[in-house]
Amino acid sequence: MSVAGIPMRIILLSLVVFLPFGSDLRSALAAGEEGQTTSSSPQSANPIDQALLDIKSEDAAVRSAAAALLIEKGDASLLPKLDEIRADADRATRQAIKPVIDLLKNHANLTSEQADTRRSAAADLVGTGRPEAIAWLEASAAKEQVWWVKYTMEESAQLMRLRSEDQTVRLLAIKKLGDLRSQNGLSALKEFVETGAQSEATDEQRALATAAQTSVGEIDSWFWWAGAIETFFRGISLSSILLMMSLGLAIVFGLMGVINMAHGELMMVGAYATFITQQAFIAWFSPEHFDWYFPVALPVAFLSAALFGLVLEATVIRFLYGRLLETLLATWGVSLILMQAARVYFGDLTAVIAPQALRGGAQVMVGVYLPYNRIFIIVLSIVCVLGIYFLLFRSNLGVRVRAVTQNRNMSACLGIPTRKVDAYTFAFASGLAGIAGWALTMVGNVDPGLGQNYIVDAFMVVVTGGVGKLAGTIWASLGIGGLNKLIEPISGAVYGKVFILVGVILFLQWRPQGLFAAKGRNADA
Amino acid sequence: MPEQMATQQNSRETLSFYITGFVLLVVLPVLNVLPSEDSWLYLSDFRLNQFGKFLCFAILALGLDLIWGYCGVLSMGQGVFFGFGAYCMGMYLALQIGKESVYGSELPDFMVWTQVKELPFFWYPFKSFAGALLGAILVPVLFATIFGFLAFRSRIKGVYFAIITQALAFAAWLVFNRNETRLGGTNGLTDFKQLLGYRLSDPSTQRGLYIMTVLALGAAYLFCRWIVASRAGKVLIAIRDSESRVTFSGYTPWMFKLFVFVVAAGLAGVSGMLYVPQVGIITPAQIGVLPSLEVVIWVAVGGRGTLIGAVLGAVAVNYGRSVLTNYFPEAWPFILGGLFVIVVTMFPDGLLGMIRKLSERKKTPAPLIKAEGSTAA
Amino acid sequence: MTDDNLILNCQNVVMDYDGFKALNNCNFSVHYNELRVVIGPNGAGKTTLLDVICGKTKPTSGKVLFGKGINLVGKNAEDITKLGVGRKFQAPSIYANLSVWQNLDLSVKRASKGVFPTLMGRSTPAERERIDETLETIGLTEHAHDRAGSLSHGQKQWLEIGMVILQDPSLLLVDEPVAGMSDKETEQTGQLLTKLSGKQAIVVIEHDMDFVRQIANIVTVLAEGTVVCEGTVETVQADEHVRAIYLGRAKVAH
Questions:
Q1: Which of A524, B275, B312, C91 has its CA 20 to 30 A from that of A516?
Q2: Percentage with pLDDT > 90 across chain B
Q3: How many domains does chain A have?
Q4: Which residues from chain C sit within 8 angstroms of residue A520, using beta carbons?
Q5: Helices A132-143 + A91-109 axis angle, to 10
Q6: Packing angle, helices A8-18 and A60-73, rounded to 10
Q7: What pLDDT shows up at residue B361?
Q8: d(CA A55, CA A82)
Q9: Whole domain around residue A318: which residue ranges?
Q10: Are A257 and A321 in contact (CB under 8 A)?
């Protein structure tokens, strides 16, 4: 009696070694050698129906033989019956049925429509330890289209081969795992290395250890690079958050001579607007339309933050044009008020549920997993930069804004409504903060301190980049965001921040006007 | 003649200095000691102690007024220097607890929790009172010298400087919160018992500390007035009015800024040093971004560019805060924020400016600060 | 003329702002105790020239030799001031929140202007006398204790001139001193400048040709960052090329 060419004896042996219910199987092994003579139930024409009866047997050997048969011949259609049996069976039967259910379910799932289901089935099969699964995995892998699922299937198959008794099969599996850069295989491979290093190790074990050592080396260096790529990605992701915040800051700072310390709180307004939109969808729309709340929240966040900005400009900022430090202090006051208002009204912590499309992530290569929400933020920041560029430098409105910046009186004489331009520019920058807040709900909680988390860094970006220079803001946010994530693993987040501060101060020694200083005869006016 | 007016004003200022000094130094402590507890004249130990705290803040405000009110350089990191002074004194007091601590160890309690077996090296100087005094002034002064040198020499000014100092306050807050800096982490230093053999819980000790604070404030005030009255004080105002002109008058502005920044840091250190034994606790929460900004609002409310304004603002805002947080604990951030907005947009000269405007309406108006030239960058 | 007589000698000064050459190989020299007027159309580089001399901006290339061959390029503004170059800006640049007297007191030439000497120093009787004299010269004696910010525009211009005089410069750079002044004030300013020349060299930038005629001996015409003509008022005004440049007909040959 054999399964896929492997003697029954070996299958059972491996079960004895790997499975917790080994003691039952030891007797099953004995039973297997004697043949199925001890079956107490009447024979049935269909072996599967017979096995379904046998699995309830008192005799452990009969049960395991039935289980083996079910695994070999059965399919997912048996699952409801098995569940039924399990529901009112005794403990021994439940134990016998569980691996059957697991294997059948995962086997069936290998051909699921959902890539994620196929992948997790492949991963789960390793845990069952049943060598039958190797063939299933390899057969599925050959047909698989999605590389990451295919990879997991191959990896799982090789992980199971590691448990083979055949030295050549194991050696091959070790080498294959190395080739696959399997992180899941790392601990098993290291065990081989350790066993081989012991003084009483056999030659076979030593050979395995040497091969494993090579594979471990390959995997380690691969994951060093993968880690580097992920760090880089996290750096870019933080950079784009900073960039989106700093863009609004830089616009009002550079174009209007206003330091807006309440910018973070305008972002908070955008985030709460998103939250409220979500609540409205929960209350008024059916769940299948729930995901639409997120696109709808974009204009809501933009407009509500812009409205706050408009009010802020009309009531506070407009009295303070040209007095930078004063704008800084007054907007600080506004930020305190907005923060406390949010705390009083919304309480301390709320969160937004990401729409389906932004959950999860993409496995771009082995060891590198990029969450969709981060990719989304990076793309959004690029869109924002392009949008601002076109608005400021390629549109009529932009010409007016820049004209007012450069010469307010002359612009007024030319009939540009400077007051309106001021108000709209400020509202637009505030709206940008709203968009940033909208995006930030995807990566963190919505809380009153949302703006404060990034505001210091964002100002460092503006200072480092140089006033009123789009390019400076972009480079500085890349630099500061990147450095932050680069230093973090080495020194911890806190000292990372301290290093960045020291770095910025030293940088300003070299370039006091920032990366891209305004040059020309009015430069230091 | 204007000069006569100036001397008149001077003598009036001297007179009010002595009167205030007499009230603070003699009248209030006497009201605390002599009247019976139910008399309406009686000033409770709590009130006196609270007043002592406000006067500490007044010293801190004086420093900021020098650098911001006179020189036009906004430092949003004064809380850090205050914290240095406070922690230096706090370390001394923590070591004075000795065997009285909860764990009966020679080490401060938090070190026992965090498994520190030996006193970290930088705690040693604070075993002596002289070390603590010296540290409370020298640490902020040295730090301000290095930081200020780097910042001012490279001509970081205006909002750039303000933002950098805010980042400094943020970074300092983060670092003081860490346990591995061996300064008590988030809980800070507290549970102090004695100072130079006097029990801190004893009202007479607190009275003594109050008197020390009044004297320190008086000295700080005179010192600041001396600076402001000197030609260097005029250079500070000149820098505020027109920094580039100052270089063309042959002065090096950044050196003056550095000097006054260091003086402000020293005053902040003194303030922190006096604060800790009176309040009995110092935590990182007192040195972050917001506490540093509150100093700015004290000065703005009182009237920047006048020393009396700084003192007045510190006492008034903190008194208002202590009253209001009793009744409406959630309202304080609204009021603080509102103060920022209203003072900055409508009353740039603060309380003192308003008083002057009212009293001098008939005479020639003499605004303290006028947005002429640029007060900003 | 020999180089020994020159207090200022600018050689091939170039000031390049991202491709725009505000000064283009400018050669410009001034004798000791001379009063020189620089004229030229808008954007000719007149103010930039003064900025380069007094250290406000660093030229892209070229030399600025002062007195006995000291190159001012690369020195910072305070050091150049101490060497004896005084600068009066176009828009009056004074300390608005100090009194007139304090404005002047800060400007007096002193051995050291470091922090501690300034902190400890008191004005000597001699210095006070000089300040009073200057007050007289600029006609602000009555306003000595007024806040400088409360002065009229013309008075502010004079105050700034007074401040520069007290620095005892051997070279005085004056940028459009009479802009915004009444005719009477303009004339008084002219007299003041003429009085001062003879004790120190003065370079005046001016647009007002009546005023130029009143004070000038030699006039330098600057256009597109280069000296195009130098001579008496009459020669310059008669010069066809200069006229063409002013009227925008001719380009400057570099």
A1: C91
A2: 31
A3: 2
A4: 17-18, 20
A5: 20
A6: 110
A7: 60
A8: 10
A9: 228-450
A10: yes
User: Order of strands, edge to edge, in the sheet holding C226-231?
Assistant: C85-88, C171-175, C201-205, C35-39, C218-223, C226-231
Q: What is the distance between the alpha carbons of residues A416 and A399, in angstroms, rounded to a whole number?
A: 11
Which residue from A67, A73, A63, A24 is spatially nearest to A40, judged by alpha carbons? A63
Question: What is the rounded CA–CA span in Å between residue A346 and residue B36?
Answer: 49
Closest by Cα among C203, C200, C183, C191 to C39? C203
State the pairing for strand pair A361-365/B281-282: unpaired
Reference B282, options B21, B92, B64, B7; nearest CA is: B92
What is the ipTM for the molecules in this complex? 0.84
Name, of A377-386, B56-65, C104-113, C203-212, the range with top average pLDDT: B56-65
Chain B residues whose CB is inside 8 A of the A499 CB are none
Among A82, A109, A136, the domain-final residue is: A109
**B189 part of a folded domain:** yes
A396-406 and A203-256 helices cross at what angle (nearest 10)? 70
Which stretches of chain C drop beneath a pLDDT of 70? 1-4, 247-254
B22, with CB counted inside 10 A (0-12, 13-18, 19+), is exposed
Amino acid at C97: N
pLDDT band at B377 (very low <50, low <70, confident <90, very high): very low
Residue pair B280/B192 in contact by the 8 Å Cβ criterion: yes
- The pLDDT value recorded for residue C122 is 83
Among residues C211, C227, C159, the alpha carbon closest in space to that of C11 is found at: C227
CB contact under 8 A, B158 and A339: no
Cα(A384)–Cα(A438) distance, integer angstroms: 13
Question: Who's near A114: CB < 8 A, 6+ residues apart?
Answer: none
For position C232, which CATH number holds? 3.40.50.300
In a 13 Å sphere around the CA of B357, the CA atoms on its Cβ side amount to: 12
The residues, any chain, with a CB within 8 Å of residue B209's CB and separated by 6 or more, are B52, B195, B274, B277, B278
The total number of residues shown for chain A amounts to: 525
Give me the number of domains chain B comprises.
1
**A407 phi and psi angles, rounded to 5 deg:** -155, 95
- Nearest CB to B339 within list A259, A333, A339: A333
Select the residue from C16, C17, C58, C175 to test the A interface by mutation, using most A Cβ atoms within 10 A. C17
Q: Which domain holds residue C228?
A: 1-84+208-254
B347: three-class secondary structure by DSSP: coil
B51 lies in a domain?
yes
What would the two tokens of residue B111 be?
């070190």
In a domain, A436, yes or no: yes
CB spacing of A337 vs B339 below 8 angstroms: no
A512 touches chain C (CB under 8 A): no
Report the interhelical angle of B332-346 vs B307-327 (nearest 10°): 150
CA distance A317 to A423: 9
Range of the domain at B137: 44-289
pLDDT at B254: 92
Please give the Cα distance from B44 to A524 (Å, whole number): 56
| C184 lies in some domain | no
pTM assigned to the model: 0.81
d(CA A252, CA A459): 12
Is residue A195 assigned to a domain?
A: no
Looking at the structure of chain C, the number of domains it has is 1
Q: How far C123 CA lies from chain B's nearest CA (Å)?
A: 9
C66 inside domain: yes
Contacts of A41 (CB under 8 A, 6+ apart): A50, A53, A54, A57, A62
* Residues of chain B contacting residue A319, judged by C-beta atoms under 8 Å apart: 345
Both tokens assigned to C222: 């600057």
Neighbours of chain A (3+ CB pairs under 8 A): B, C
Q: The tokens of C58 are what? A: 């660093």
